[in-house]
Structure formats: C-alpha cells, structure tokens
Amino acid sequence: MENTKKINKNSKIAVLCGGLSNEREVSLRSGKNVYKALIELGYKDTTLIDVNRNIASVLKEEKIEYAINVLHGRYGEDGCIQGVLEFLNIPYSGCNVKSSAICMDKIMTKKVLSTVDVNLIKSVNVTKDDYKTKVKELNYPIIIKPANEGSSIGMTKVNSENELDCAMDEALKCDKEILIEEYLEGTSATVGVLEREKDGKIETFATPILAFKTKTEWYDYEAKYTKGLTEFILPANFDENLTKKIQQMAITAHKSCSCKGVSRVDFLVHNNIPYILEINTNPGMTDTSDLPAQAQAMGINYNELVDIILKTADIK
C-alpha cells in the first residue's frame, strides 16, 4: 500500500477495538487505554471505534486517515481487518495481512519457524477425525490448543488419555484444526519486538524479557487477565547469554514470519533451553498486559509506546 502522508497531530485517527472475537472484552480494555493515550499525546482528532461488520462504511463516513489496530483474535489479528484497511487505502499500525494470517494460525507459525534456527516443542497437528491416532506420537502431559485462537481460550492441559476427549471437545468449539504440544515444565517468558524509524532507517529491537509465575497450574486466561494471579519478573533473571539468545530468537521469529511494526514472542524455557510457543501480532495493551510493562522496563512509558505503535503505520 503506497502512502505518501505522514502521521501528525491533526491526522484523523481511529482506534479499532472490540470486534467479534472471543477476545472482545480484552480488546475493549486495550482500546480505551490506547484512545486515552492518544488524546494525551495531542492527537485530538481520534475516534474510538467498536468494530462490527459495517466497519468499512464507518471508516469511510468518519473520513479516517490512519488506524491503530487494537483488535485481538479473529478478524483483528488474522489479516481480515488489515485487508479491509488495505482496500480502503488507510495506513494502519502493526503487522500486515500476510504476517497476521501466518501468526494467528499456530500450526502455520510452527511450519514457518521450523525453517529457521529456533527451538520448537514437539507437537502434532490434528482434527476431530485423527487426534486419537496422532496424539500417540507425544508423551503426556500435553497441551491442547485451537490453531486460531488467542488468550489461552480453548486451551487445556491434559495429564492422561482419560482427559483427552473432553479437552478436544473444548478446543473444537473454537476451531477445526488443533495443535497438540508436549507439556514441558519450565519458566514462561515473553519478549516484545518493536520497529521504529531512526535516522532514516528502520530499527528493530527487542524489549527486556518478562518471566512470570502463576498461582494457576499454567498461564491460562484467568492468570493472564486477573490481577494478583501472576507474579511478573521483569527483567527475567536469566543470565546474559540466555537473555541475548531469547531476544535474538524473538527478532528472528518476528522477521521470519514477515511481522511488521510490533509483535510479542512467547517462550517456555526448559532446562535452560528457550522454546518458542507463538507470536502475537497485536499484543494486549490493558493495565495487566505484558508489552506495556516490558516497554516501561526499558524507559518507554505507556503513552510513548502507543506513539511508537501508531507510527508503525508510516514504516510499511
């Protein structure tokens, strides 16, 4: 998409949030925070839009010049809204159609990442018809994940074959394709990757690593979005070599999947080996979200982070 304009304080900006996915409520919380930040930053002609199926008409009626995408899950992170914005010639923040579609699909993400030098947990891709056969390739416990879902929705830890059918039923409510991974004990961690224009060039950099311990058995939806259920360790207490390895692996994953502007790469560190779990192309921006905390740890406050993300629309 060709764009000769540059964002300025008089630009007509839409904050796109809410939407139609299972992550709607989280997106609304992110959107309200981002909208408030933009107003405080001086982008006075900013509109908060709860996205529905009439979004193309709304964007045209509002004469939107730029969009900052704060939608999570289906239609917001999978390339759909990005395609609408491309069609309307509206520059937007974050990842494009291609990278959004790849990273929303956990199975496709692992296929792409298997071609580069990163570590991946042993897994199988299944449907309702073949899971009982394919799962035999793995050792219990396992984690069952809908291929195209976020925020741990539809995910279940399965400790034995007796629990398998029930967990699959839950996952199949969200998607027809399911990813099953072996469950590894270890430290959950996440790294933000950001891009910004500096001295006429695009700079790609990783945030400090955030590690976390949860009061739940694993990092599920409840732990992610309930204050007090997760202890955050920022920066993570990994040694210098492991820290650099994780950050470089995050940047490699970001670039390999054609991500643009911003992403967040999730890891599981087992026996001092970092394994990539997934890539989030539209990280949460709520009060409890990881990316704002990571940015703060490197001296970038919430409003400054929003400004960086908004301006990724100019570096497509």
Summarize the structure.
It is built from 11 helices and 13 strands. The protein has 316 residues and is an alpha+beta fold.
Question: Can you put this structure into words, describing what you see?
Answer:
The strands form three sheets. Strands 8, 9, 10, 11, 12 and 13 form a six-stranded antiparallel β-sheet that branches. Strands 4-7-5-6 form a four-stranded antiparallel β-sheet, covered by helices on one side. It contains eleven helices and 13 strands. The model has no long low-confidence stretch (mean pLDDT 93). The termini are close together. It has three domains: 13-94, Rossmann fold (3-Layer(aba) Sandwich); 102-119 and 185-314, ATP-grasp fold, B domain (D-amino Acid Aminotransferase, Chain A, domain 1, 2-Layer Sandwich), CATH 3.30.470; 123-182, ATP-grasp fold, A domain (Dna Ligase, domain 1, 2-Layer Sandwich). Helix 1 crosses helix 11 (302-311). With 316 residues, it is of the alpha+beta class.
- Which CATH C-level class of the largest domain is it? Alpha Beta
- Element order, helices and strands? EHEHEHHHEHEEHEEEEHEHEEHH
Name of the CATH superfamily of the largest domain: ATP-grasp fold, B domain
Poorly predicted runs are none
CATH topology of the largest domain: D-amino Acid Aminotransferase, Chain A, domain 1
The description of the largest β-sheet is: 6 strands, antiparallel
Q: Given the helix and strand composition, which structural class is it?
A: alpha+beta
Shape: globular
Task: Tell me which CATH architecture of the largest domain applies here.
Answer: 2-Layer Sandwich
Number of domains: 3
How helical, in percent, are the residues?
25-40%
What Rg is obtained from the alpha carbons, in whole angstroms? Answer: 19 Å
> What is the beta-strand fraction?
15-25%
Mean pLDDT: 93
What's the number of helices?
11
Number of strands: 13
Ends distance: 8 Å
